[in-house]
Write a structure and sequence with these properties.
The chain is of the alpha+beta class. It is built from five helices and seven strands, in the order βααββαβαβαββ. The chain has one domain: 3-Layer(aba) Sandwich (Aminopeptidase). A seven-stranded mixed β-sheet has the order 1-2-3-4-5-7-6, with helices on both faces. β2 and β3 form a beta hairpin. The chain starts with 7 loop residues before the first strand and ends with a strand.
Length: about 200
């Protein structure tokens, strides 16, 4: 574990588009180039379409969604440079979740749930509290928006940083989440934002 950092977490908005693209172009996947073409668009693409997309298409698609307000989340900065990202949006806005029988209950109102689907932390900034700061910001924003809950999907038996892209279970349990359901490969964890 490295020394404590001064982390500033800011919501993604059009004025931070270049920071977002720089982070994914040059920082996020320096140790995992196979994932460098994702641009955190995976959950916005309907099932079955991902394999046909190029990194350039994903970059352009992410930029378009940011311009339109469809891609939502938080950037973590240290010294004015982006060092981390959390993809957090209303559940109904993720095409992949909406198409999943395991992760989507049609009886629920996906507009009232903030889903946290991905963390990407710069390699040299991992295990230093960046994801914790990003998750805290996501929960605070969801509460300020009057949402009912925050939901996430930590993966079981994740052994590498890449496999932990949903965030480890311990991260969520440490911030007041509880296990809502257990699936073969994932847990669904939730934190209620309802008063009382």
């Amino acid at each position: 574990m490295g020394p404590a950092m001064r982390i500033e977490v800011l919501p993604l908005e059009i004025g931070r588009l270049e920071d977002y693209l720089h982070f994914f172009d040059r920082v996020a996947f320096t140790d995992n180039p196979d994932w460098a073409g994702c641009y955190c668009l995976f959950y916005h693409v309907p099932e079955g379409e991902w394999e046909t997309r190029s990194g350039a298409q994903n970059r352009e698609g992410a930029a378009g969604l940011i311009r339109d307000g469809g891609l939502s989340g938080f950037l973590a900065y240290e010294g004015g440079r982006p060092v981390g990202w959390c993809n957090a949006n209303r559940k109904e806005r993720y095409a992949l979740l909406a198409g999943s029988r395991e992760l989507w209950d049609p009886r629920e109102d996906g507009s009232r749930t903030l889903s946290v689907v991905c963390f990407v932390i710069a390699p040299q900034h991992r295990r230093r509290g960046v994801a914790r700061s990003l998750l805290s910001a996501a929960c605070a924003a969801a509460q300020a928006q009057g949402l009912e809950q925050v939901e996430a999907y930590p993966r079981k038996q994740a052994r590498t940083a890449a496999q932990h892209y949903h965030g480890p279970l311990e991260l969520y349990l440490g911030q007041g989440f509880v296990v809502h359901r257990e699936l073969p490969d994932y847990w669904i964890v939730r934190r209620s934002l309802r008063p009382g």
